[in-house]
């Protein structure tokens, strides 16, 4: 996704490790479950879980490998993982948190806007436009492309309202309809905001060799938590999706608490 993309330099040991581990997961899952498609989804989900953790905790890259370990629970009872939604969340994070170290381009924003529209109509839910609108609001507040954000944000907001009225797609679950797994994910994603606040204060290099803005890093972390919460209530997540996001939260939180609180 141009500026939002990240080149995987295999000369770095950690990058090579995750690529090899993802391929190994793909092959093992294929043999274990007897379906190539399951192997592709699980191998891809391992890589994306690692990538999400890297964006949420850029100051402590090894927390992503703890996430990978937790994400392997999906091997035990695989049904489906919405890979495109995970990828979309990853790109939203990079749009907001400024880890690229580069100025956002019009093409970056419009490409992600198009991706959002695709998901919104494909999944028949205006929730994706709502989350994109929240992301663009943070661009208006914290990014160097505030003017561009001011133009795109109301357009996305209007489309959200129009789709919601036209298709009546935003139907949130009430508390009685939530499962135990839903409740655990809601609790963990909410409590994670407190850890994210401290994480965002750790000086973090961006991809261009500069220093990432703490306010933008925290805005990305907060957006991720809110997005997961909204998707739970909109019933957009499979059981495997929920375990993947739980693995991300657990890996980031436990690594930070163990390295900065328990053993500091």
Can I get a quick summary?
This protein is mainly α and 264 residues long. The protein has helices at 13-33, 36-56, 63-71, 83-97, 106-122, 127-142, 146-167, 180-199, 214-233, 239-262.
Description:
This protein has 264 residues and is an all-alpha fold. It has 10 helices and no strands. The chain has helices spanning 13-33, 36-56, 63-71, 83-97, 106-122, 127-142, 146-167, 180-199, 214-233, 239-262. Helix 2 runs parallel beside helix 4 and helix 6 runs antiparallel to helix 9. The longest helix is centred in the last third of the chain and has 24 residues, at 239-262.
Total DSSP helices = 10
Strand content: under 5%
Low-confidence parts: none
Instruction: Please report the total strand number as a whole number.
Output: 0
* Straight-line distance between termini: 39 Å
Please tell me how large the radius of gyration is.
Answer: 18 Å
Percent of residues in helices: over 70%
Order of helices and strands: HHHHHHHHHH
Can you tag this structure with a few keywords?
transmembrane, mainly alpha, 264 residues, single chain, 10 helices, globular, membrane
């Amino acid at each position: 996704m141009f500026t939002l993309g990240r080149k995987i330099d295999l000369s770095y040991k950690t990058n090579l490790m995750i690529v090899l581990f993802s391929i190994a997961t793909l092959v093992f899952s294929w043999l274990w479950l007897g379906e190539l498609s399951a192997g592709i989804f699980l191998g891809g989900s391992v890589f994306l879980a690692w990538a999400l953790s890297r964006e949420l905790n850029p100051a402590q890259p090894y927390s992503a490998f703890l996430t990978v370990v937790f994400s392997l629970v999906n091997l035990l009872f695989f049904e489906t993982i919405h890979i495109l939604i995970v990828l979309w969340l990853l790109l939203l994070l990079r749009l907001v948190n400024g880890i690229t170290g580069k100025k956002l381009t019009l093409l970056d924003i419009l490409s992600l806007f198009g991706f959002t529209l695709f998901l919104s109509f494909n999944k028949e839910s205006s929730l994706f436009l709502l989350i994109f609108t929240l992301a663009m609001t943070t661009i208006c507040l914290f990014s160097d492309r505030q003017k561009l954000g001011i133009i795109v944000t109301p357009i996305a907001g209007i489309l959200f309202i129009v789709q919601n009225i036209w298709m009546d797609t935003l139907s949130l679950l009430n508390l009685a309809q939530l499962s135990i797994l839903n409740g655990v994910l809601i609790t963990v994603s909410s409590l994670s905001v407190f850890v994210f606040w401290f994480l965002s204060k750790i000086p973090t290099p961006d991809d261009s060799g500069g220093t990432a803005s703490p306010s933008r890093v925290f805005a990305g972390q907060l957006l991720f938590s809110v997005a997961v919460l909204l998707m739970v209530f909109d019933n957009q997540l499979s059981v495997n999706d929920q375990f993947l996001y739980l693995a991300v939260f657990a890996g980031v939180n436990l690594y930070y608490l163990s390295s900065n609180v328990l053993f500091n």
